[in-house]
Amino acid sequence: MPVISSSSTILVTGGTGFIGAWVITVLLQRGNTVKAIVRSEVKGLALRRSLFQDKRNEGKEALFDVVVIEDLTKDRAFDATIIGVDGILHLASPLSIDATSEPEEIIGSAVNLTLAVLKSALRQSQSGDHTLKRVVITSNGAAVYTPNPSEPTTFSEKDWNDASIAVVQEQGRDASLMDKYRASKVKAERAAWDFYNNHRGEIKWDMAVLNPPFVTGPAFQAPASPADLPSTLKMWYNLVVVPGEKARPAVLANAGWVDVRDLAEAHVRALEIQEAGSERIIVSEGVYIFQEWLDIANKVKPEGYKKELPKGLPELTAGIITYNLKYDTSKASRVLNIRYRTKEETTRDILEWVAERGW
Ligand SMILES: *[C@@H]1O[C@H](CO)[C@@H](O)[C@H](O)[C@H]1NC(C)=O
């Protein structure tokens, strides 16, 4: 039995982001009504434009609505919007953070944002008029893995990245931005599970959490220039497409990855599928070192893409590649049954998308 069938009403936070626009598209294709929470009218208009100038969303305008909530963490900010909603996909992250931010600021904003959504969801259950069946929260692989493992390690949903919390505790504001970011992901996800477990007896919905690692793929929005690309796609683009010498540490960087379109499908399945309830799920096709993307790009370069692509350091992938970081992705296969795009498919699609823009 699905928890949420198509033709439901789904609230989405973070819809203006890289993953969010694809998620909304999958929801609309399934015939759901979508309420997208945005922080300003301008962002709402931009999202509406990018969604409906695309033929995939043709004829779906009537199913889509934007709700402007400037400060999502303001007390009860979500309460009115949540009325009548069957499911929530919470993808939003706090606004921009930078290297000099206090860890308490970064971590506190992430935790407060997640709790704001869950508190409204709890109040809906306590009201006489509850419709909500499931909340799906987008966490991150960074909440799972221990950074830079010194030997090959396979991480699963049982693992938590307490290492980054320790680093931030020790180094405070001198900790790297990456460590602060990772620590915020751990704390926000932990806060979500604590809240969920503490209120199990009162809530009329259940929760699922997705932990995607590095996300890449074509962007749904149409950025004016490569500088406006979503951050993870920009990183991919800068390493794989932009000419120039590639430093060894950069092309050796090893992580898990998933195509943004498969991750969007995973979000919607995490709403629909009964067995996803109360689960934390790593969503990843597999792992890479960056040089592999460079090799693949040179191999699958589509006809439309005319420019030279950098070669990087192909000797790094000539032999057997040792991945120190790996994920056990069996839960996602079992519960969500995603057919992932391969690195080749994703690379070709990004390059075609880039070529269409004449970059
Ligand atoms: C998070 O919420 C707590 C409790 O309301 C508040 O004291 C704190 O300042 C908030 N943190 C941030 C960074 O907004």
TrEMBL record:
The chain crosses the membrane at residues 6-28. It comes from the Eukaryota. GO terms for molecular function: oxidoreductase activity, acting on the CH-OH group of donors, NAD or NADP as acceptor. InterPro entries: Epimerase_deHydtase, NAD(P)-bd_dom_sf, NAD(P)_dehydrat-like. It comes from Ephemerocybe angulata. Belongs to the NAD(P)-dependent epimerase/dehydratase family. Dihydroflavonol-4-reductase subfamily. PANTHER family: NAD DEPENDENT EPIMERASE/DEHYDRATASE (PTHR10366), STEROL-4-ALPHA-CARBOXYLATE 3-DEHYDROGENASE, DECARBOXYLATING (PTHR10366:SF564). This is D-lactaldehyde dehydrogenase. Keywords: Membrane, Oxidoreductase, Transmembrane, Transmembrane helix. It holds the Pfam family Epimerase. The lineage of its organism: Eukaryota, Fungi, Dikarya, Basidiomycota, Agaricomycotina.
